[in-house]
Amino acid sequence: MDRTYKKIQEGIENFEDIEDKMNSAGTAAQKEKQEADLKTQIKKLQRLRDQLKTWQTASDIKDKAPIVEHRRLIEVVCHLPLTAHVSLGCMARLIESQKFV
Q1: Cα dist from 4 to 41, 50, 101, whole Å
Q2: How many CB atoms lie within 10 A of CB 68?
Q3: Is the Cβ–Cβ distance between 42 and 2 less than 8 Å?
Q4: Lower Cβ count inside 10 Å, N or C end of the chain?
Q5: CA dist list (Å): 70 to 7, 33, 35, 55, 100
Q6: How far apart are CA 92 and CA 100, in angstroms?
Q7: Do 52 and 67 touch, CB atoms closer than 8 A?
């Protein structure tokens, strides 16, 4: 599970990097390539989210709080419009403060 959590954090960081490159792209062709890369990264994160969903329903896993938190991180990143993207640190603070629903 720790390996998956690490992949999720790396995936979110990659997402943010690609998003920054896309926003600073000079030409339409560069922007389109970055958008394609972004879609690929979203698909990777969604696959990881599906794994978390499976673990969330497993009866042999007792502490499900980290699973729920990482699932929420992925859902926030993948479902916000690109211009309203929230950094990983902000999302973590939202979850910790219980303001994220």
Answers
A1: 15, 11, 23
A2: 12
A3: no
A4: C
A5: 11, 28, 24, 12, 13
A6: 9
A7: yes
pLDDT tens digits, one per residue of 2-56: 899 999 999 989 988 888 888 888 888 888 888 889 889 988 998 999 999 999 8
Q: How far apart are CA 10 and CA 86, in angstroms?
A: 15
- Rounded to the nearest 10 degrees, the angle between the axes of helix 88-96 and helix 65-79 is 130
CA dihedral 75, 19, 41, 71 (to 10 degrees): -20
Question: Residue 50's Cα: distance from chain center in Å?
Answer: 12
What is the model's pTM?
Answer: 0.71
